[in-house]
């Protein structure tokens, strides 16, 4: 169900006028796009990629071959690692993303892409639950997240997460 | 550009095949599986491609796409779709299958795992007219899928059928690129490649069935088996049969858990377990975080150990020496000893209230402490592990004393953080020598202290480092150390150990016996852990049988993570250096922190619940224990929240656990005269036994490894299974049927009450009182505890046919949201509102008006009609239950629920009651569009144009309006306001009726304004667009409908209360209607379907 929300938000942020018809299939509720011309498309990333092309915004899929590959990689990561992840995996995800984002503004480098949008949607529930201390620990992720949530037109169906810019977690427990 | 691959790694087949296929030039490097090529990933990931820019790609599919792209081919939607399917559906199934075949030799089970994806692929191929997946030409999708399937499909014995798939597989496999990639990575041997086995062995276990350790709760995100509670496919026929066999064994003559006889001493041939929890510092009242961090966790484990028949000794006590006590004494005008006496009693009574079952709760200010600490000191001294040094110390002239670390604050010399403590900087975490602080201030009087030197003794940690490391390796390797404990210890040792001062210029402490240091005492971190020994010595003279007996004794230390270094490094060094065969910690169990409503506990700000206040809340000790343990910060910090506590109490304890145990007991007492009926097990019953047995094994497995919070979930899972079992089998109905039905009812009741009995045992460590109450109610034989938790757990029939149970009564009480709100205020300090607000409000207080008995007091309105309606309600309720049991379609259930609510309302009216309570509680936001006062009888009753009633109503309307205004003024939650508005409109409507007016106009108006945020169409703008078939709005509504549908499904899955579900169903129908309107359709069909019939 979340996937449909995401796609709807994506449609809006891409400025697509006519809403598409979706449904879901299988236990995992994989989204399906029914289109009038051509076969239906299955899978969140596939559909999202298709929407971006439909909206004539190819830059969102990455400019160069390298960037395209990075976008695809993080889209896949979102689906296979972030979605439905167990709480034990959360640490690893945050840690890995944090060190990846160390020297990058966005997931594919310096350009905002579809990977940022979908990763943002997918990781939102994790970030919402982080304690301030954990947010500070994963500074790069938090910074990226804040960036993306304020990127024009991205944050549609999700509540904003407050990110403090100065560190507040100063003391231990007592 | 460089491609890293490893032998035997099936993912590498993909990239090598595509590399050759495209002919792109690229170095290939073969590395070890373990090699961390991608610098930013914490686990090794192969294959990996180093891009010209210096970034790494680690996703095999993205690498393939990249290579293809370099070759000048764009990927299409359909290629993307196949790659996505491969990554999300096929790959997890393939990995699961490979694990089973290669590592577990369970080839026979692969079809089950792979059937879904394989037949999907087969069908898709059959429907195409092209030779390959996406075209007449091979695409990257073909190569990737082929490579993924290569190990499995190259072994024809594993999967049969799927002819089209087989043909396609062979066709792709003829490509030279594929042949050579398979040769390179798997030596062309497919599944039989030795390197594949090696590769798989190194992968983290990801699927259940591999090592019970993982269990259902820890499935990876992409496991093919889906949801956690989807256990239908987990149980094999053998497991089910063996559960039935175990069950049949009944209680054996296994020894009961023996009464504890003090003093408890280690025994030959027994598992001797010594449990300690970090000694709480005496000068403060402990808060919930302290309690869960040490004493409560240790208590659960100690209780569990005793149930398992281990020989457990659990000791703890208050840590009483130190400056803080001296200070407190000064504050309160008492001597240090008096302060300790006073607070020791406070601690003891708090732990007693929390039912912490120490074998001995002592204190550190005893003669034994002095004896043992001095003895260890001399031994260290004799063996040359102590150093003398001149120490510069901060002394506050105003306070006339040396300042302990915690009484100095200043600027961190490393990171310039201004509020660094005297021993450690909270910001950069570095340890600090207090004299190194810049701009130090005395925390007591804010004066600047001066530096004075005096001679002190140091424990020579560097000299003990090698021995420590050896021991650490053994202990952490064989024991259950929590991850944080290992990690903190590792970082301490890695940074290198330095000599550590063990003496202090204080009065209140254990005196240093050395004549050169006669005016000094031991520093608390040298002294305090020795408290474990001295407290045991105060318990028994034979304390050395525990503490100098590492051969026979296993030592568990429980603490919060800030205490780890002292238990894993400093104290073990003291004991190792003393060379007296001391028992060292085998299992170091450290929790993370518990926060309070997303902030920290703070005595000074009045934030949080402290041990002594818990009992004043009126919430039973067992419920506190349950919630704290449910939240236990295992692995990561957690936060106490009042609202969450109420939710967990109401949903888990009341509706799940309590409900099940109570129903099971009630059936026995009501239908079978308190005598457990005969049981003839059918397949379905055996399946439940197996499910329960599986959870029991999990529980034991987790508890053995001190995963206390996770083990609690097993208990709740069992009662969930139990509730479902009762719900499906309906013993209360079958008891009224024929002989076969009655027998069935007996079996289900008998099995259920036995599950309840098992739960009582499993609950004992967590909720001792509740556990005891259940066993009393069921009149359970004392030997149950011993038998059920033996070995890996045996779910046997412990209450056989003919067993008489006692009197059954409810175990838990609902926590009302008002009660919780007031507690939250009371303990909240000035807290900002928390973000997470579980919907306690959505829970109806009780199922209103559902009990016909309560309604006999009919108000004279129309007794006959009320009787009829009562019957109708009961019938309708039964119908809804049946439908749910049969998992009927949502719309069908929804329609029936709506009908039920309508009936209830009519009943209320007929009884002359104000129907509001039912409406507001049960349905809230759902009002009122779908439920107009359609019943003519009800209307006439109101319609009398009674002046008196009208006057009353006018007043009520005014009052209600005021209430709404106030709520709005206070910016209350929308749902709350919405409910009140609904009430207001209803009142207005009644007023209109009472005044003889046609209520309709009000209704329409009411519908507009009364809709709370969740139901769209609330703003006028949206309404104007209604007929315009506005796409935007339709989009929103489609989503809203889908979401609401999901919500209803979830609630049903959770077996939520009927009224709750009903309300949501009504909301759903309303949304659908609005959607129809927005799409320009006539909504009637939906409505009719929703309501009539």
UniProtKB/TrEMBL annotation, chain A:
InterPro entries: AIMP3/p18_C, Arc1-like_N, EEF1E1, Glutathione-S-Trfase_C-like, Glutathione-S-Trfase_C_sf. It holds the Pfam family Arc1p_N_like. One of its GO terms (cellular component) is cytoplasm. Keywords: Acetylation, Coiled coil, Cytoplasm, Nucleus, Protein biosynthesis. PROSITE patterns: GST_CTER. It is found in: Cytoplasm; Nucleus. This is Eukaryotic translation elongation factor 1 epsilon-1. Its main location: cytoplasm. Residues 50-172 form the GST C-terminal domain. GO terms for biological process: positive regulation of DNA damage response, signal transduction by p53 class mediator; translation. The keyword Acetylation applies. It comes from the Eukaryota. Positive modulator of ATM response to DNA damage. Part of a multisubunit complex that groups tRNA ligases for Arg (RARS1), Asp (DARS1), Gln (QARS1), Ile (IARS1), Leu (LARS1), Lys (KARS1), Met (MARS1) the bifunctional ligase for Glu and Pro (EPRS1) and the auxiliary subunits AIMP1/p43, AIMP2/p38 and EEF1E1/p18. Can interact simultaneously with MARS1 and EPRS1. Forms a linear complex that contains MARS1, EEF1E1, EPRS1 and AIMP2 that is at the core of the multisubunit complex. Interacts with ATM and ATR. It comes from Oncorhynchus mykiss.
């Amino acid at each position: 169900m979340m996937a449909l929300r995401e796609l709807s938000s994506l449609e809006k942020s891409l400025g697509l006028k006519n809403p598409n018809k979706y449904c879901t299939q299988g236990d995992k509720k994989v989204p399906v796009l029914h289109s009038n011309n051509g076969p239906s498309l299955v899978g969140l990333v596939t559909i999202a990629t298709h929407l971006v092309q439909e909206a004539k915004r190819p830059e969102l899929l990455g400019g160069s071959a390298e960037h395209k590959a990075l976008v695809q990689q993080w889209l896949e990561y979102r689906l296979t690692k972030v979605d439905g992840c167990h709480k034990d995996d959360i640490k690893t995800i945050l840690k890995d993303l944090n060190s990846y984002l160390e020297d990058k503004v966005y997931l594919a480098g310096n350009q905002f892409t579809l990977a940022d949008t979908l990763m943002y949607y997918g990781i939102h529930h994790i970030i919402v639950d982080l304690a301030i201390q954990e947010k500070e620990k994963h500074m790069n992720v938090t910074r990226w997240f804040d960036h993306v949530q304020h990127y024009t037109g991205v944050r549609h169906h999700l509540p904003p997460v407050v990110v403090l810019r100065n560190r507040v977690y100063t003391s231990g427990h007592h | 550009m460089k491609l890293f691959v490893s032998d035997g790694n099936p993912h590498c087949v993909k990239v090598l095949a595509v590399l050759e296929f495209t002919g792109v030039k690229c170095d290939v490097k073969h590395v070890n599986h373990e090699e961390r090529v991608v610098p930013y990933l914490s686990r090794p990931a192969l294959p990996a491609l180093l891009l010209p820019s210096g970034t790494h790609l680690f996703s095999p599919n993205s690498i393939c796409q990249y290579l293809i792209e370099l070759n000048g081919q764009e990927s299409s939607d359909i290629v993307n779709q196949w790659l996505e399917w491969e990554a999300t559906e096929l790959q997890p199934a393939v990995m699961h299958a490979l694990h089973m075949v290669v590592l577990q030799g369970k080839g026979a089970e692969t079809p089950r795992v792979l059937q879904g994806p394989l037949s999907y692929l087969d069908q898709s191929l059959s429907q195409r007219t092209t030779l390959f997946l996406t075209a007449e030409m091979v695409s990257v999708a073909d190569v990737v899928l082929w490579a993924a399937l290569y190990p499995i499909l190259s072994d024809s014995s594993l999967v049969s059928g799927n002819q089209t798939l087989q043909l396609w597989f062979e066709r792709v496999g003829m490509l030279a690129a594929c042949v050579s990639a398979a040769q390179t990575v798997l030596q062309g041997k497919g599944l039989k490649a030795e390197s594949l086995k090696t590769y798989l062995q190194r992968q983290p276990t990801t699927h259940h069935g591999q090592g019970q350790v993982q269990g259902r709760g820890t499935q990876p995100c992409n496991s093919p088996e889906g949801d956690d509670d989807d256990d239908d496919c987990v149980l094999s026929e053998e497991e089910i049969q063996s559960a039935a066999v175990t069950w049949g064994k009944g209680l054996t003559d296994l020894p009961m858990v023996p009464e504890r006889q003090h003093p408890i001493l280690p025994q030959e041939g027994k598992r001797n377990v010594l449990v300690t929890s970090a000694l709480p510092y005496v000068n403060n009242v402990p808060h919930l975080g302290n309690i869960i961090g040490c004493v409560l966790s240790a208590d659960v484990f100690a209780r569990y150990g005793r149930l398992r028949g281990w020989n457990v000794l659990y000791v703890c006590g208050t840590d009483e020496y130190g400056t803080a006590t001296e200070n407190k004494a000064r504050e309160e005008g008492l001597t240090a000893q008096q302060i300790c006496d006073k607070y020791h009693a406070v601690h003891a009574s708090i732990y007693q209230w929390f039912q912490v079952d120490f074998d001995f709760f002592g204190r550190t200010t005893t003669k034994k402490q002095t004896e043992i600490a001095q003895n260890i000191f001399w031994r260290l001294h004799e063996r040359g592990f102590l150093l003398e040094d001149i120490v510069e110390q901060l002394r506050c002239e105003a306070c006339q004393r040396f300042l302990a670390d915690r009484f100095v604050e200043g600027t961190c010399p490393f990171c310039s953080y201004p509020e660094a403590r005297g021993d450690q900087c909270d910001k950069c975490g570095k340890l600090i020598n207090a004299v190194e602080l810049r701009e130090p201030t005395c925390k007591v009087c804010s004066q600047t202290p001066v530096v004075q030197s005096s001679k002190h003794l140091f424990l020579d940690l560097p000299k003990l480092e090698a021995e420590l490391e050896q021991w650490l390796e053994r202990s952490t390797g064989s024991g259950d150390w929590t991850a944080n404990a290992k990690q903190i210890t590792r970082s301490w040792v890695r940074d290198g150990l330095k000599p550590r001062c063990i003496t202090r210029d204080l009065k209140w402490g254990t005196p240093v016996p050395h004549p050169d240091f006669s005016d000094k005492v031991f520093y608390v971190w040298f002294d305090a852990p020795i408290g474990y020994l001295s407290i045991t010595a105060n318990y028994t003279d034979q304390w050395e049988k525990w503490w100098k007996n590492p051969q026979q004794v296993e030592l568990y230390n429980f603490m919060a993570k800030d205490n780890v270094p002292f238990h894993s490094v400093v104290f073990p060094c003291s004991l190792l250096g003393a060379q007296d065969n001391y028992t060292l910690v085998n299992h170091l169990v450290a929790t993370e922190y518990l926060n309070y409503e997303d902030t920290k506990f703070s005595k000074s700000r009045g934030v949080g619940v402290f041990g002594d206040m818990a009992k004043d809340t009126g919430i039973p000790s067992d419920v506190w224990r349950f919630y704290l343990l449910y939240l236990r910060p295992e692995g990561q910090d957690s936060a106490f929240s009042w609202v969450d506590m109420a939710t967990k109490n109401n949903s888990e304890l009341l509706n799940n656990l309590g409900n099940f145990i109570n129903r099971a007991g009630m059936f026995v007492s009501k239908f079978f005269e308190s005598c457990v009926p005969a049981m003839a097990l059918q397949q379905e019953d055996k399946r439940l036994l197996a499910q329960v047995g599986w959870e029991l094994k999990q529980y034991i497995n987790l508890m053995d490894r001190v995963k206390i919070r996770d083990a609690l979930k097993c208990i709740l899972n069992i009662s969930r299974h139990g509730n479902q079992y009762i719900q499906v089998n309906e013993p209360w109905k079958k008891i009224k049927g024929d002989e076969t039905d009655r027998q069935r009812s007996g079996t289900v009741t008998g099995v259920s009450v036995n599950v309840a009995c098992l739960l009582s045992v499993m609950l004992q460590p967590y909720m001792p009182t509740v556990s005891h109450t259940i066993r009393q109610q069921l009149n359970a034989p004392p030997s149950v505890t011993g038998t059920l938790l033996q070995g890996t757990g045996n779910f046997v029939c412990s209450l056989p046919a003919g067993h008489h149970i006692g009197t059954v009564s409810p175990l838990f009480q609902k926590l009302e949201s008002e009660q919780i709100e007031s507690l939250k205020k009371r303990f909240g300090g000035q807290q900002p509102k928390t973000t997470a607000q579980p919907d306690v409000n959505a829970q109806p207080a009780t199922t209103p008006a559902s009990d016909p008995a309560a309604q006999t007091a009919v108000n004279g309105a129309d007794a006959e009609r009320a009787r009829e309606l009562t019957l109708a309600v009961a019938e309708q309720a039964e119908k809804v239950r049946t439908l749910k049991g049969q998992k009927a379609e949502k719309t069908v259930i929804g329609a029936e629920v709506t009908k039920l609510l309508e009936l209830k309302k009519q009943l209320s009216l007929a009884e002359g009651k104000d129907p509001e309570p039912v409406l507001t509680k049960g349905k809230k936001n759902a009002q009122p569009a779908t439920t107009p006062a359609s019943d003519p009888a009800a209307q006439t009753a109101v319609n009398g144009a009674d002046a008196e009633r009208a006057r009353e109503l006018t007043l009520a309307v005014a009052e209600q309006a005021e209430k709404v205004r106030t709520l709005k003024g206070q910016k209350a939650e929308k749902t709350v306001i919405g409910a009140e508005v609904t009430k207001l409109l209803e009142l207005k409507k009644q007023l209109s009726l009472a005044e003889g007016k046609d209520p309709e106009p009000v209704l329409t108006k009411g519908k507009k304004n009364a809709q709370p945020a969740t139901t769209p169409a609330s703003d006028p703008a949206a309404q104007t667009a209604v007929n315009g078939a506005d796409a935007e709005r339709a989009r929103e509504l489609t989503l809203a409908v889908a979401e609401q549908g999901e919500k209803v499904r979830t609630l049903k899955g959770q077996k939520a209360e009927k009224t709750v579900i009903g309300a949501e169903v009504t909301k759903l129908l309303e949304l659908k209607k609005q959607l129809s309107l927005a799409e320009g359709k006539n909504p009637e069909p939906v409505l009719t379907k929703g309501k009539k019939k």
